[in-house]
Amino acid sequence: xxxxxxxxxxxxxxxxxxxxxxxxxxxxxxxxxxxxxxxxxxxxxxxxxxxxxxxxxxxxxxxxxxxxxxxxxxxxxxxxxxxxxxxxxxxxxxxxxxxxxxxxxxxxxxxxxxxxxxxxxxxxxxxx
Length: 128
Prior knowledge:
This protein is α+β, with helices and mostly antiparallel strands. The chain has helices at 12-19, 49-56, 72-83, 108-115, and strands at residues 25-31, 59-69, 88-90, 121-127.
């Protein structure tokens, strides 16, 4: 019954560049993107330094950036990227990430992973 939700199958950068005005996003949630687990393929991961430099222009001041993954090294990599990125404050400080985040909506897949004993890496930063 929601009128303000759309589901699209499109490359994120292309969609943002073509449809989103710069400085207009109040929040971005990226939940369990493809981790490209092979070392030679990691350059294909959505969230990396270049993507965050690109996304920063589209986030409004005070906008929240949420990232969650069940893939250990992806979570650690993104936490490190965000820690070294100017213009973002880590809202989980002093931690770079957490394995539980109160109030965060968990998908059925996140619940399934956690029931299997897997850890979710949650990252929450704000554009300053």
